From TrEMBL:
Keywords (A to Z) from UniProt: Disulfide bond, Membrane, Repeat, Secreted, Signal, Transmembrane, Transmembrane helix
Localization terms from the record: Secreted
Protein name (record): Immunoglobulin I-set domain-containing protein
Pfam families: I-set, TSP_1
Domain Immunoglobulin I-set: 2-50
Top-level taxon of origin: Eukaryota
Lineage: Eukaryota, Metazoa, Chordata, Craniata, Vertebrata
């Protein structure tokens, strides 16, 4: 029995027929108090206790990774370690032999902070009256975990002292083209209006625009059309109560609106009536 419990033999523990227990390869789990018990219907006998102590010598674990260099810049030390825990020594077993810590020298590269190069020349002024310049962080460039340059890599400012002539010319060109466009549109509208006016008044057979034969102050007169039995039409002109007739070949049924013309002189009015009478009305 082991610790007052029945022993279960296995491949490394053999229970012989002569009641001897043979442990071929001791294991830590085999440690304990062993006794032999014999019994019959008359009596029960127990042997003296045998203490089995399994001695375990220590064994090293695996090495750890190398540590970082212990200095940020220059010559330093790196190390790694292991422990005597695979297994740990038990029951008077021997401790692990050898070093638990290894050290090597290291050389850490010193960080180099970046520095600004000289500013470039100012660019030409843009149409927005702005110029730019730039610089690079390469004097020196940051290395070995060094810090980047502080500040802006580009600068911009408004152009002053007449340096923005390009923008001024552009503004003048815009104003010039806008004025030309507006002038062309105005002329086109005027031409169209004159043509429509002349077209509308030419339907009556009288050039109302050409009034160079009349002079003096303006008086109101009316144009209207009446139908003749001969199939033609004639134009009735009323000026200050007098009526004059003028033959027209246009077959218009429209009534012209009242317009203001200068009062004709007597001889001009007489000539107008003679011409009207000569048309056979």
């Amino acid at each position: 029995m082991k610790n007052d419990e029945p022993v279960h033999p296995d491949e490394k523990m053999d229970l012989r027929a002569d009641h001897n227990l043979i442990i071929s390869q001791a294991r830590l789990a085999d440690s304990g108090n062993y006794t032999c018990v014999a019994s019959n219907i008359v009596a029960r006998r127990r042997s003296a206790q045998a203490v089995v102590v399994v001695v375990v010598n220590g064994g090293w674990s695996l090495w750890t990774e190398w540590s970082a260099c212990n200095v940020p810049c220059g010559r330093g030390i790196q190390k790694r370690s292991r422990t005597c825990t695979n297994p740990a020594p038990l029951n008077g077993g021997a401790f692990c032999e050898g070093m638990s810590v290894q050290k090597i020298t290291c050389n850490a590269l010193c960080p180099i902070d970046g520095g600004w190069d000289e500013w470039s020349e100012w660019s030409t002024c843009t149409s927005q009256c702005e110029r730019q310049r730039s610089r690079e962080c390469n004097s020196p460039a940051p290395r070995h975990r060094g810090r980047m340059c502080e500040g802006n890599s580009q600068a911009a400012e408004n152009c002053t002292h007449g340096l923005c002539a390009q923008g001024m010319e552009s503004s003048n060109d815009v104003a010039l083209y806008s004025g030309l466009g507006a002038g062309i549109i105005a002329v086109a509208i005027l031409v169209v209006a004159v043509m429509l006016y002349r077209k509308n008044h030419s339907e009556y057979g009288v050039d109302v625009i050409d009034s160079s034969a009349l002079s003096g102050g303006f008086q109101s007169f009316n144009f209207k059309t009446t139908r003749q039995v001969c199939g033609g039409e004639h134009l009735t002109l009323t000026i200050e109560g007098s009526t004059a007739l003028h033959w027209s070949t246009a077959r218009s049924k429209k009534e012209m609106t009242t317009a203001n013309l200068r009062t004709p002189r007597l001889e001009q009015l007489r000539d107008f009536k003679e011409k009207a009478g000569g048309q056979g009305v």
